[in-house]
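Structure ticket #2291
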Amino acid sequence: MVMTPEEKLNRLREQLEQLNKAILAIQNGAQEYSIGTRRLKRADLGVLYKERDRLEREIEVLENGGGIFKVAVFDGR
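Resolution: structure written out below.
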């Protein structure tokens, strides 16, 4: 299934929202915790920050027309 640019943008925004929630949880002290004999350790903040930067760049590209490069054609001199 091929997504439209708007669908892709919405998916990226949802991913960014979830990522920001994960970052906030870690910043509020939930990096690692135990429940009984089970332990959970969340992703490294550095990795999450890099992924957030990537998502933000991709969203910006889509919001600004979908491409990094623009082509201009000038007729004559």
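Closing remark: The first helix runs from residue 5 to 27.
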